[in-house]
Write a structure and sequence with these properties.
The complex is a heterotrimer. Chain B is an all-beta fold. Chain B has no helices and 7 strands. Chain B starts with 5 loop residues before the first strand and ends with a strand. Classes of the chains: A alpha+beta, B mainly beta, C alpha+beta. Chains in contact: A-B, A-C, B-C. Chain C: This is SoxAX cytochrome complex subunit A.
Chain lengths: 138, 108, 285
């Protein structure tokens, strides 16, 4: 059944979250992580994600990620139809391994960041962002 | 007139060796490819799929972007400025267009 | 912030449309300071004609989250400024059979300071015109160019640029004299129930501001922030488009952008914000 909430999610351009089975989402996230890490183990911690606890609109959610010592950070939205958001590569001219951007979230979900450290190890951070899907259209 | 327009913000001044915050924005719809038009036809994906920044010939940031990046993509990051040099910002569009902006930055 | 977030979350869980228990205040202590320099008042004494329906009038900015409010406090973070920057190019662009640009007649765009603040305004033929009407009149009559659509990109760009010139100036619409009859009609419309849900503007924005509706925070419906960059649409939303959205949400048949009814409503709604400064280009959810 297509609910009003689904329809609004589609309006956001991140369609049909509810139609993708949970297992498929989890596996898409795992696949994206494996592709990034080459199957190496990932430790928790060392990655900071700064995002609002509640986002007023899922179409533009401010987010900042930081992982000191990282050469690359993969950013995933675990509940979007496709989890990929961005991959940040920090070059020799970067002063920090930090970046901020604005992302689309199809609903309340975990935002996951995997950092590749200079020594080749991987670290993981995650936060839940609650997304208000409602409000009056303009 | 092109509707795609980059905006860059650098600090007014900095000393050699300072870490500065750089902000960039480019006007772009970031069409996800997941929407349909009024007649039910899929609207093809058209996004900025990559953004790079170089300073003094060195790579600062290279971002691969997916449709989950919001319209009018915004990027903020930190650069250590050891010398006066050029910033080169480049955005790559799905349609093959490349938008580039160069700005000189003076350190004292 | 934490307390407020929790309060909002609770209200959202209650989920009720216009629930009397889910009352959440705006952020009355927040101060809108743009670029650390320009103080924009977000609260004011209500105009007399409102007859005491509000203890104080509030900008819609006060009803938004910390993150959304912050976007309007920095001209780089505010994506609406992109539109104004494009508007600067359009201002200089000669077009039409007369090969004239806005700048050819009006000079620097700073000459537009105060224009947004008095819109909509009765023209020399006694018609009530919005800023868009004045722009299109210049295009068709002086430049020999095509009129722009109300919600078109070039119209958004140029109205954003012109509005920016009045930022910080108080709303100054004229509601007496020739404007009085239009204002009365707008006022009548404000209190008229529309749509299957039988809701008037006043039902939400006068009777229930500060409460939750559709998991969102109801403002007092002030128009001083328009044109606004809306995060949901990721573009500039003109006031008439917002009106359309409101009427659609009542499950009613809307008027078109630019319709006489909407220009009258624009005048009346603007007059409810007499005392608040123009914010355009604001940022909303």
């Amino acid at each position: 059944m297509l609910t009003r909430r689904d329809t609004m999610a589609m309006g956001l351009g991140v369609a049909a979250v509810a139609m993708v089975p949970g297992a498929a989402i989890a596996s898409a996230v795992d696949d994206a992580i494996s592709a990034f890490t080459g199957g190496a183990s990932v430790t928790d911690g060392g990655v900071t994600i700064d995002a609002p606890e509640i986002a007023e609109n899922g179409n533009t959610v401010p987010i900042a990620i930081e992982a000191p010592g990282a050469t690359e950070i993969l950013l995933l939205a675990a509940g979007n139809p496709t989890p990929g958001v961005a991959k940040f590569g920090f070059g020799e001219g970067a002063a920090t391994s930090r970046a901020a951007t604005r992302i689309r979230l199809g609903g309340t979900q975990d935002v996951v960041a995997i950092a590749k450290m200079a020594d080749g190890s991987f670290a993981r951070g995650a936060v839940e962002v609650k997304v208000t899907i409602g409000g009056c259209g303009g | 007139m092109s509707d795609v327009r980059p905006r860059i913000r650098l600090p007014r001044s900095a000393n050699a060796g300072d870490v500065i915050e750089v902000k960039t924005l480019i006007s772009h719809n970031m069409e996800t490819g997941l929407r349909r038009d009024g007649s039910g036809n899929e609207i093809p994906r058209q996004i900025i799929n990559r953004f790079t920044c170089e300073y003094a010939g060195k790579l600062v940031l290279d971002v691969t972007m997916e449709p989950a990046i919001s319209a009018n993509p915004y990027m903020e990051f930190d650069v250590k400025v050891d010398e006066s040099a050029d910033f080169v910002f480049t955005w790559y569009d799905d349609d093959g267009s490349v938008y580039s902006e160069t700005q000189s930055f003076e350190v004292s | 912030m934490k307390t407020m977030t929790k309060l909002w979350a609770t209200a959202a869980i209650c989920g009720a449309v216009l629930s009397s228990t889910a009352f959440a205040d705006p952020h009355p202590d927040a101060e809108l300071i743009i670029e650390g320099e320009l103080h924009i008042a977000t609260r004011a004494e209500p105009p007399e004609h409102l007859g005491g329906v509000f203890p104080e009038i509030y900008s819609g900015w006060l009803f938004r989250t910390d993150e959304t409010r912050a976007l309007q406090m920095d001209d780089f973070d505010n994506p609406g400024l992109l539109f104004a920057e494009r508007g600067e190019d359009r201002w200089e662009l000669a077009e039409g059979t007369a090969n004239q640009s806005c700048a050819d007649c009006h000079g620097d765009v700073e000459s537009m300071a105060g224009v947004r603040a008095v819109m909509p305004k009765v023209n020399e033929n006694g018609e009530l015109w919005s800023l868009q009407n004045y722009i299109n009149n210049c295009r068709t009559e002086r430049m020999g160019a095509d009129a722009w659509g109300w919600n078109s990109e070039p119209m958004k760009d140029v109205t954003s640029l012109i509005s920016l010139q009045s930022r910080g100036m108080p709303v100054a619409v004229k509601i007496d004299g020739e404007a009085a009859e239009f204002w009365e009609k707008g006022r009548e419309m404000y209190y008229t129930r529309f749509g299957q849900l039988e809701l008037s503007c006043a039902n939400c924005h006068e009777d229930n501001w500060g409460r939750m509706i559709r998991a969102d925070h109801l403002s007092q419906g002030m128009s001083n922030g328009f044109p606004t960059y809306r995060l949901k649409n990721a573009t500039i939303v003109p006031l008439h488009q917002r009106f359309r959205g409101c009427i659609r949400d009542t499950r009613g048949e809307s008027f078109a952008e630019g319709a006489q009814e909407f220009r009258e409503l624009e005048l009346y709604v603007s007059s409810r914000g007499l005392g608040l400064p123009i914010e355009g280009i604001s940022v909303r959810q």
